[in-house]
Amino acid sequence: MKNIFKILSIGLIIISSCGKENPIKVETPINTLDTIKNFNGILFPVSGKLTLNFEHYFANTPIIYGSQNYITNANDTITISDLAYRISNIQLFDFNKKTWVDVGTYKLNPGLDAFEYKFTINNIPAGLYNNIRFNIGVDSLRNHVGDQSGDLDPALGMYWSWTSGYVHFRIEGRKIPSLQTFSLHIGGSPNVVNKNFDLLSYKVKDSLKGISFDMKLDVSKFFNTPFLYDLSVDPLNIHNEFEPIIKQKILPNMLGMFSVENVKAD
What we know:
The chain is mainly β. The protein has 4 helices and 16 strands.
Protein backbone atom coordinates (compact mmCIF):
# COMPACT_ATOMS: atom_id res chain seq x y z
CA MET A 1 0.00 0.00 0.00
CA LYS A 2 2.84 2.38 0.89
CA ASN A 3 4.37 1.68 -2.51
CA ILE A 4 1.10 2.62 -4.21
CA PHE A 5 0.94 5.94 -2.34
CA LYS A 6 4.57 6.62 -3.22
CA ILE A 7 3.92 5.97 -6.91
CA LEU A 8 0.84 8.23 -6.88
CA SER A 9 2.78 11.02 -5.16
CA ILE A 10 5.57 10.86 -7.72
CA GLY A 11 3.01 10.92 -10.53
CA LEU A 12 1.31 13.98 -9.11
CA ILE A 13 4.65 15.79 -8.80
CA ILE A 14 5.46 14.93 -12.42
CA ILE A 15 2.03 16.08 -13.61
CA SER A 16 2.31 19.27 -11.55
CA SER A 17 5.74 19.96 -13.00
CA CYS A 18 4.52 19.40 -16.53
CA GLY A 19 1.63 21.81 -15.99
CA LYS A 20 3.98 24.72 -15.20
CA GLU A 21 5.72 26.04 -18.30
CA ASN A 22 8.70 28.29 -17.90
CA PRO A 23 7.75 31.76 -19.24
CA ILE A 24 9.63 32.80 -22.39
CA LYS A 25 11.27 36.19 -22.04
CA VAL A 26 10.85 38.39 -25.12
CA GLU A 27 13.53 41.05 -25.21
CA THR A 28 12.89 44.27 -27.12
CA PRO A 29 15.71 44.86 -29.61
CA ILE A 30 17.92 47.79 -28.67
CA ASN A 31 17.50 50.79 -30.95
CA THR A 32 21.12 51.84 -31.34
CA LEU A 33 20.08 55.22 -32.76
CA ASP A 34 18.03 55.94 -29.65
CA THR A 35 20.99 55.26 -27.39
CA ILE A 36 23.22 57.91 -28.98
CA LYS A 37 23.96 60.60 -26.39
CA ASN A 38 26.48 62.81 -28.16
CA PHE A 39 25.90 63.68 -31.79
CA ASN A 40 25.91 66.49 -34.32
CA GLY A 41 23.14 67.00 -36.85
CA ILE A 42 19.54 65.84 -36.72
CA LEU A 43 18.64 62.44 -35.30
CA PHE A 44 15.58 60.32 -36.15
CA PRO A 45 15.69 57.23 -33.86
CA VAL A 46 12.69 55.88 -35.77
CA SER A 47 10.92 56.89 -38.95
CA GLY A 48 9.61 60.43 -38.54
CA LYS A 49 8.48 63.59 -40.30
CA LEU A 50 10.29 66.72 -41.44
CA THR A 51 8.69 70.16 -41.79
CA LEU A 52 10.22 73.01 -43.79
CA ASN A 53 8.86 76.43 -42.88
CA PHE A 54 9.93 79.25 -45.24
CA GLU A 55 9.51 82.86 -44.11
CA HIS A 56 9.96 85.66 -46.65
CA TYR A 57 11.87 88.87 -45.92
CA PHE A 58 13.53 91.75 -47.70
CA ALA A 59 16.65 91.93 -45.52
CA ASN A 60 14.93 91.97 -42.10
CA THR A 61 11.56 93.37 -43.21
CA PRO A 62 8.74 90.85 -43.76
CA ILE A 63 7.33 90.69 -47.29
CA ILE A 64 3.93 92.35 -47.58
CA TYR A 65 2.30 92.51 -50.99
CA GLY A 66 1.67 95.89 -52.55
CA SER A 67 1.83 98.27 -49.60
CA GLN A 68 5.43 97.92 -48.35
CA ASN A 69 8.34 99.71 -50.08
CA TYR A 70 11.75 98.06 -50.28
CA ILE A 71 15.02 99.66 -51.43
CA THR A 72 17.62 97.63 -53.32
CA ASN A 73 21.36 98.33 -53.31
CA ALA A 74 20.89 99.89 -56.76
CA ASN A 75 18.60 102.44 -55.07
CA ASP A 76 15.53 101.03 -56.79
CA THR A 77 12.48 101.51 -54.58
CA ILE A 78 10.07 98.67 -55.26
CA THR A 79 6.90 97.04 -54.09
CA ILE A 80 6.34 93.28 -54.45
CA SER A 81 3.03 91.88 -55.66
CA ASP A 82 3.93 88.23 -56.21
CA LEU A 83 6.53 85.76 -54.92
CA ALA A 84 6.32 82.11 -55.94
CA TYR A 85 8.75 79.19 -56.20
CA ARG A 86 9.13 75.43 -56.26
CA ILE A 87 11.14 73.24 -53.86
CA SER A 88 12.04 69.74 -55.05
CA ASN A 89 14.30 66.71 -54.63
CA ILE A 90 14.95 67.08 -50.92
CA GLN A 91 17.95 65.01 -49.81
CA LEU A 92 19.28 64.13 -46.37
CA PHE A 93 22.88 62.93 -46.07
CA ASP A 94 24.10 60.80 -43.17
CA PHE A 95 27.59 60.44 -41.75
CA ASN A 96 28.33 57.41 -43.91
CA LYS A 97 27.69 59.56 -46.99
CA LYS A 98 24.67 57.47 -47.89
CA THR A 99 21.76 59.46 -49.20
CA TRP A 100 18.06 59.34 -48.58
CA VAL A 101 16.35 60.98 -51.56
CA ASP A 102 12.67 61.82 -51.76
CA VAL A 103 12.65 62.01 -55.55
CA GLY A 104 8.89 62.38 -55.57
CA THR A 105 8.81 65.66 -53.66
CA TYR A 106 7.80 68.63 -55.80
CA LYS A 107 6.33 71.40 -53.67
CA LEU A 108 4.85 74.57 -55.12
CA ASN A 109 4.49 77.82 -53.23
CA PRO A 110 1.96 79.55 -55.51
CA GLY A 111 2.50 82.91 -53.86
CA LEU A 112 -0.84 83.15 -52.07
CA ASP A 113 0.77 84.01 -48.72
CA ALA A 114 3.28 86.85 -48.98
CA PHE A 115 5.20 85.89 -45.83
CA GLU A 116 5.09 82.15 -45.24
CA TYR A 117 5.11 78.80 -46.99
CA LYS A 118 5.57 75.43 -45.29
CA PHE A 119 5.13 71.73 -45.94
CA THR A 120 5.77 68.40 -44.19
CA ILE A 121 7.35 65.22 -45.51
CA ASN A 122 6.39 62.00 -43.73
CA ASN A 123 8.26 58.70 -43.39
CA ILE A 124 11.77 60.09 -43.06
CA PRO A 125 13.94 56.98 -42.53
CA ALA A 126 15.54 56.57 -39.11
CA GLY A 127 19.07 57.96 -39.17
CA LEU A 128 21.54 60.59 -38.11
CA TYR A 129 21.88 63.27 -40.78
CA ASN A 130 24.42 66.07 -41.09
CA ASN A 131 23.39 67.72 -44.35
CA ILE A 132 20.22 68.74 -46.19
CA ARG A 133 19.89 69.69 -49.84
CA PHE A 134 17.05 70.70 -52.12
CA ASN A 135 16.44 72.26 -55.52
CA ILE A 136 14.75 75.54 -56.25
CA GLY A 137 13.00 74.41 -59.39
CA VAL A 138 12.07 71.28 -61.30
CA ASP A 139 14.81 68.92 -62.46
CA SER A 140 15.28 68.01 -66.11
CA LEU A 141 13.66 64.58 -65.64
CA ARG A 142 10.29 66.18 -64.89
CA ASN A 143 10.59 69.60 -66.50
CA HIS A 144 9.54 68.79 -70.05
CA VAL A 145 7.36 65.68 -69.94
CA GLY A 146 3.94 67.21 -70.50
CA ASP A 147 1.00 67.53 -68.14
CA GLN A 148 1.54 66.19 -64.65
CA SER A 149 -0.42 66.06 -61.39
CA GLY A 150 -0.08 67.29 -57.83
CA ASP A 151 2.09 70.37 -57.37
CA LEU A 152 3.29 69.90 -60.96
CA ASP A 153 -0.20 70.41 -62.37
CA PRO A 154 0.15 73.17 -65.01
CA ALA A 155 -3.25 74.50 -63.95
CA LEU A 156 -1.62 75.75 -60.73
CA GLY A 157 0.49 78.21 -62.71
CA MET A 158 4.28 78.58 -62.76
CA TYR A 159 4.25 76.87 -66.17
CA TRP A 160 5.26 77.96 -69.66
CA SER A 161 2.83 76.35 -72.09
CA TRP A 162 4.83 77.49 -75.10
CA THR A 163 7.78 75.32 -74.06
CA SER A 164 5.96 72.77 -71.87
CA GLY A 165 8.28 73.58 -68.98
CA TYR A 166 8.05 74.90 -65.44
CA VAL A 167 8.91 78.23 -63.87
CA HIS A 168 11.17 77.71 -60.85
CA PHE A 169 11.03 81.15 -59.28
CA ARG A 170 8.80 84.16 -59.92
CA ILE A 171 8.87 87.67 -58.52
CA GLU A 172 6.72 90.58 -59.69
CA GLY A 173 6.13 94.13 -58.54
CA ARG A 174 6.51 97.81 -59.36
CA LYS A 175 9.16 100.48 -59.27
CA ILE A 176 8.32 103.52 -57.18
CA PRO A 177 7.39 106.26 -58.03
CA SER A 178 7.20 105.51 -61.78
CA LEU A 179 4.90 102.49 -61.19
CA GLN A 180 6.76 100.59 -63.91
CA THR A 181 6.07 96.91 -63.49
CA PHE A 182 8.75 94.23 -63.34
CA SER A 183 8.09 90.53 -63.90
CA LEU A 184 11.02 88.13 -63.52
CA HIS A 185 10.22 84.47 -64.19
CA ILE A 186 13.14 82.04 -63.92
CA GLY A 187 12.62 78.64 -65.51
CA GLY A 188 14.14 76.01 -67.78
CA SER A 189 16.15 72.89 -66.98
CA PRO A 190 19.56 74.64 -67.02
CA ASN A 191 18.37 77.18 -64.43
CA VAL A 192 17.62 74.92 -61.46
CA VAL A 193 19.43 76.04 -58.29
CA ASN A 194 20.67 73.45 -55.78
CA LYS A 195 21.00 74.52 -52.13
CA ASN A 196 23.14 72.70 -49.58
CA PHE A 197 23.12 73.24 -45.80
CA ASP A 198 25.58 71.81 -43.27
CA LEU A 199 23.80 70.69 -40.07
CA LEU A 200 26.85 69.97 -37.88
CA SER A 201 26.18 73.00 -35.70
CA TYR A 202 22.84 71.50 -34.58
CA LYS A 203 22.04 68.76 -32.07
CA VAL A 204 18.34 68.01 -32.56
CA LYS A 205 16.66 64.71 -31.75
CA ASP A 206 13.19 63.83 -33.01
CA SER A 207 10.66 64.00 -30.18
CA LEU A 208 8.44 61.53 -32.09
CA LYS A 209 6.44 64.53 -33.32
CA GLY A 210 8.97 65.47 -35.97
CA ILE A 211 11.74 67.98 -36.66
CA SER A 212 11.15 71.45 -38.12
CA PHE A 213 13.44 73.73 -40.10
CA ASP A 214 12.84 77.48 -39.94
CA MET A 215 14.07 78.78 -43.30
CA LYS A 216 14.56 82.39 -44.36
CA LEU A 217 14.09 83.53 -47.94
CA ASP A 218 15.73 86.96 -48.26
CA VAL A 219 14.44 88.65 -51.42
CA SER A 220 16.96 91.50 -51.08
CA LYS A 221 19.70 89.07 -52.09
CA PHE A 222 17.93 88.43 -55.39
CA PHE A 223 18.81 92.03 -56.26
CA ASN A 224 22.01 92.50 -54.29
CA THR A 225 24.22 89.49 -53.56
CA PRO A 226 26.76 88.88 -54.99
CA PHE A 227 25.71 90.83 -58.11
CA LEU A 228 23.82 94.09 -58.30
CA TYR A 229 20.56 93.77 -60.23
CA ASP A 230 19.62 97.28 -61.34
CA LEU A 231 16.07 97.64 -62.63
CA SER A 232 17.11 100.83 -64.40
CA VAL A 233 19.60 98.88 -66.52
CA ASP A 234 18.84 95.17 -66.25
CA PRO A 235 15.67 93.61 -67.75
CA LEU A 236 12.36 94.48 -66.18
CA ASN A 237 10.79 91.39 -67.74
CA ILE A 238 12.15 87.86 -68.14
CA HIS A 239 9.88 85.13 -69.48
CA ASN A 240 12.25 82.66 -71.10
CA GLU A 241 15.18 80.51 -70.01
CA PHE A 242 17.70 81.95 -72.47
CA GLU A 243 18.12 85.49 -71.15
CA PRO A 244 21.91 85.82 -70.53
CA ILE A 245 21.43 87.82 -67.33
CA ILE A 246 19.98 84.71 -65.65
CA LYS A 247 23.32 82.91 -65.51
CA GLN A 248 25.34 86.10 -65.18
CA LYS A 249 23.55 87.49 -62.14
CA ILE A 250 20.28 85.89 -61.12
CA LEU A 251 21.29 82.27 -60.44
CA PRO A 252 24.30 83.26 -58.28
CA ASN A 253 22.04 85.67 -56.38
CA MET A 254 19.35 83.01 -55.90
CA LEU A 255 21.89 80.74 -54.22
CA GLY A 256 22.22 83.23 -51.40
CA MET A 257 18.53 83.84 -50.86
CA PHE A 258 17.83 80.79 -48.68
CA SER A 259 19.23 80.18 -45.20
CA VAL A 260 18.53 77.91 -42.21
CA GLU A 261 17.65 80.06 -39.20
CA ASN A 262 16.73 77.35 -36.69
CA VAL A 263 16.19 73.60 -36.37
CA LYS A 264 14.01 72.25 -33.57
CA ALA A 265 12.13 69.18 -32.38
CA ASP A 266 8.36 69.68 -32.55
